[in-house]
Structure formats: C-alpha cells, structure tokens
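step 4 of 6: structure.
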Amino acid sequence: MVLGQIYAGTKKELKTIEKYLEMALEAPHPLLHEAGLELLRAGGKRIRPMLALMASRYGDPGRPEVSVSAVMLELIHMASLVHDDVVDNSELRRGRPTVKAKWDNRVAIFTGDYIFACAIKLISAFDHPEAHRQISRVIRDLSLGEIDQIRHLRNWKQNLRTYLRRIKRKTAILMALSCQLGAMAAGCDTSLSRKLYYYGYFLGMSYQITDDILDFVGNERQLGKPAGSDLRNGNITLPVFYALRNPELHDAIVSVLTEAEPSDDDWDDVIGKIRDSQAIEEAQSLSDRYLRKAEGILDELPDQKVTGLLREMTAYVGERKY
Amino acid sequence: MVLGQIYAGTKKELKTIEKYLEMALEAPHPLLHEAGLELLRAGGKRIRPMLALMASRYGDPGRPEVSVSAVMLELIHMASLVHDDVVDNSELRRGRPTVKAKWDNRVAIFTGDYIFACAIKLISAFDHPEAHRQISRVIRDLSLGEIDQIRHLRNWKQNLRTYLRRIKRKTAILMALSCQLGAMAAGCDTSLSRKLYYYGYFLGMSYQITDDILDFVGNERQLGKPAGSDLRNGNITLPVFYALRNPELHDAIVSVLTEAEPSDDDWDDVIGKIRDSQAIEEAQSLSDRYLRKAEGILDELPDQKVTGLLREMTAYVGERKY
C-alpha cells in the first residue's frame, strides 16, 4: 500500500490544509517566517491532518472546524518536532538541516513556542470543553514523553513498559487525538469519536515502533540521517530492548553505551548486529499486534467508504519503508 | 510604597493561588515535579495573578474563573521564564540556579512546554472566545519578543522603537492581559475590561523599563545576578540606548560589544559609566511617562477601594528597588 493512493482520497482537502498551514505560520518576523517556511518545505507525511480529515467523514466533513482541527494538529506536531530536535541534538530531519542546526537552540525554542501559540490560537474555534481538555493533554504528554526520553538516555536497565509509555506520549496520543478531533469537529457522537481515538492510538503505537525499526534497517538516504541515530543519541528503542535479551548483544550494547567515547566503528558494529538480529522481527511482531488491534476497532465502525481508507492506512503503516 | 502593603489587600486570595499553582504543577514525573517545585520555591512577586485578582474586584471576584485565570497567567509567565533562561543563558534567577543551570537546556525546554500545557489546560475554563484569542496572542507575543531579542543581540544600531516593541511583547502584553482577564473572569463588561487592559499595558511598560534600569543600578545581592547582566549578554536595553547618544559612552559601548572577548574589567568599566550617566535618569523619565498614562486610566475607572490599590501598585512600580 502506497501512501499516495490513500492521499488521493483526501487530496483536495490536504491541499487546502497546506495552504492554511502556510497562512497559520505567517509571522511578523523575518527569522520566524523563514523558519516556518523551511519547516513547510521540509514536508512531512501530514499523517495527522489526514487522519482528522478521514475521521471527519463519519460526520459532516464540510464543517469549518474540521480543517481548523487538521491544521492545528499538524502545527502541534511541527512545534514538538522543532523542540525535539534540540533535545535529540538532531542536525538533520528528512535530509534537511533542522531549525536548531540552521540557526541555534535558542531560535528553535522560540520558533517552537511560536508555532504552539499558532496552534493554540486555533483551539478557540472549538466550542467543546472535551476538545480543549484533550488538546492540552496531548501537549502535556508530548513534553512528558520527551522528558522521559532525556531521563532514560543510555539507561539500558529501563523496562519495556517505560518505552511503551514513552511512545504513547510522544506519538500515539497525538494520532489518537487526530482521529477523535476530526470526528468531533464533524459533529460525530462521543461513542464514535472515542472509537476513532482508539484506532488512532493503536495505529500510532505501531507507527512509532515502525519508525524505531526503520532507524535500524533503513539506509541513510531513506532516513535522511545515519542509521542507528536513535541509539547513537542514547535513545533506547524497541529493537534494543529485544536485543538486550540476547547475552552476546547485551554486552556489546552495554559496552558501547557506557564507553566514554565509542568510535564510529564500535557504533556501526553494534547497530549492524542489532539490524541482523532476531530483535527486528520481534519488534515487528509487536507492531503487528497493535495494527491488528487497530483493525479490530475498524470492524466496529460503520461500513462506509472511509472505513476502507482507514484500512488502507493501517496496511500502509504495516508496510512502510520510510 | 512597599509591595507587602498592597499584597495585604489580596493576601487570602494570593495564598489560594499559591496552593492552586502547586496543584497545577503536580507532575507524574520526578524530574518535572522537582523542577516545578524549585520554580515555586524560587518565588517571584506574583504580580500577574495579583493584577488579575485586583481587576476582578470591579466585578464578581468570587467567580471560580477568577482564580483559574490568575493561576493560568502565572503559569504562562513561569513557562516563559524557563525558556528565557535558555535563550539568555542565565545561570541564576532570583539568586537561585535556573532549570537550565540545574539540569540542562533540554530539560528546560520540556519543563517550559509542560508548564505551558498546564496553563493551556486551564484555558478551557473560559467560555469566552475573546479570552482565548487574547491568551494565544500573549503566548505568541512572548515568543516573538524573545526572538526579537535574539535577533538584535549586540546590535547597537537598532532603534528605540525596536526596544519598545520588544518589551511590549515580552512584558507589557501579559500584564495587560492579566488585568483584562481578571475583569472578564469576574463578569465585567468589555469597555471596563479594555480600560484595565490599557492600565496593565502602561504599568507593564514601566515595569520592564524599571527592570532594565535596576539591572544597571542594583547590586548583585538585590538582583540575584551580576549588575549589567543584560548588556553582558548582548541585550541592549533602554539605558544603553540613551547612553549611546553620548559620544564618549557610544565608543566605549560599541567597543565592548564588538570586541571578541572583552575582559571583566572592560565590562565593569562600561557598565559603571552607564550607571553614572544621564542615561539612567532619562530612562527613568520614560518609565514615569508610562506610569502617568497608567494613572490616567485609573482616573477613568469607577471610584472603588480597588482603584486605590491599583494606585498603590502604580506607585510601587515607580519606586521599586528590586
């Protein structure tokens, strides 16, 4: 399943979203304006707005709140990426220099804050206390997820539950909210919106696990950054948890994480070992379990054309290569 | 006028605010919890909640939205301080290590984001689109003010208008909103809330100019950081603008700002010269003009006891020494 085919079903709306994003990021400040444009140009899959748009088809997708929610969700995502790049010390994202690399950490902080503020501005479009609560919760969870990540950097003794909670906060909750908010904005009832929330949650968990797998099995061109970047930065992801259960790999990983300055060869060696190990398949299997849960939710949804699109989305997440 | 006397008039409410702040900052994460407590312990004048509480007395101060707005305003202020300290590279605030100093820049970013999220959570208490618009505007302006500051670091050629816009965004708008929101939360009409907005705005402009003066004339114990820290960090404040008009001072300032690594003696010398110059009085005089405008607004407000308190607040800002 290619994402382009799924996009085809929401092409017109997504084009509108892109225009709205540009409008929302218009800033009375040359530096911010440039940083915003750079972020837009860098692209991205716009998965969150797309989920919102798809979910809205269970209600009235023509309501103005629908596109507002889609834009807001992408802005929250963009703002958190800008801040994440500072925390992760990332120089590149999707093969382009990050805001923190092109300018510096300080500019990245306030560009992120500015984009958050643009997102918050759009919240007022929702006359729905539950939506407000959920939006503030997701922003809170995003920061908790990142703080968790900092806290557990290079900590190979953390348990799997810590990892799952972290990706839930970092990724799954925002995807869950994207589905829920799209439905709420379209006037769907609470029960249906709630189901879509869980669909997005399970999809998001699988999406992040896939990301973490691709970080090992992808090549630098696909990833836009060196393979194994997560581990190099001390971020212990699912494949590493499974690899740590293998005694030989365990010692190699612990050694590279605790050495003061491991060489590039040391890193390449460990990353290669994890890539070629059982750990990748095991991670894939957990990702698949989440996808099956997402599919289970779809079975409970009304049998409409959009349910088919969401099925294709699930298939895409299961097969995506970058 | 001592701030304590003014506080006496809102003592009970402020104590409640302090308790709510602690509740709002409760975090399901040891590091965040500690950072939040550290910020609360570091204290602060709680000027923004106090302004909101005072403004609320023009309406019904017993409405629950009043204390919610007061807490939210202080949270926005705290979050922006945490991010500012990264941008300003501040190790100390009020004599205590900043979050970025005690942990690091990355923790500071996400602690700030977390506190912003806590503030946003409280926004949902307001069933008032104008309030939402204003709150998102103030968050946007805070980030614009800081980005402006970064952009104009060490730029001695910037004009005074740039400075005034910067302090408006960094300080005055949030104080203006504090007054306006307190009134709106208490059910005051638009016209009265608007007047209080302007009172807060003029007060805030004077407040920030006073801050910028104190940075030169205060001593390290009062300031909790070395005198002249703003200029040392490249931040050109009002006294520097006036000092630059004096040819001898102009050359000394430009030289210290453009030298690759000026010595501590060079800095102390320039800062001492500015402190002993006419520039301080000139800055004071602009601050006083803003205060007189604030007083002018008070003349238009209903003749209530609280108007007297706001008058005392104005006097305090005009005379404060730290």
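step 5 of 6: annotate
 - The first helix of chain B runs from residue 3 to 8.
 - The CA atoms of residues 199 and 294 of chain B lie 5 Å apart.
step 6 of 6: archive
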